[in-house]
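Hello,

Our lab assistant flagged a job as stuck in the queue for most of the afternoon. It eventually completed. Since we weren't sure the result was trustworthy after the delay, we are filing this so someone can double-check. Below is the sequence as submitted and the structure that was eventually returned. Let us know if re-running is recommended.
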Amino acid sequence: MTAALMWEARAVPGRGPELLVWAEERVREFTRRPLRRETFRAPQDRVLVVTWWDAPYDADLPELPEPDTDLITRPVHRWRFESLGAVTDPGAPPGT
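-- returned structure --
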């Protein structure tokens, strides 16, 4: 099974680059390494980190913490998903 964890935060205006560095540093502190990790940025100084783990949906996995409140405009959004498999044929249903 593969679990995917998503973490998304919105920085105080103009502090997006600082939030991005902060998130990258926290990922390096994980005691376990994910199968895969991607980091994204978006307008309004938002940062998204997605990690994939070889683990069941409800496994105890390392997660990014909440940044200091002076760096973000709102609480972090978090989601956890269970992979249904990669789709190599865009016309095929998920999991095939």
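-- support follow-up --
The delay was a queue issue, not a problem with the job. The result is valid. The longest strand covers residues 2-10. Residues 2-82 form a domain with the Alpha-Beta Plaits fold (CATH 3.30.70.100).
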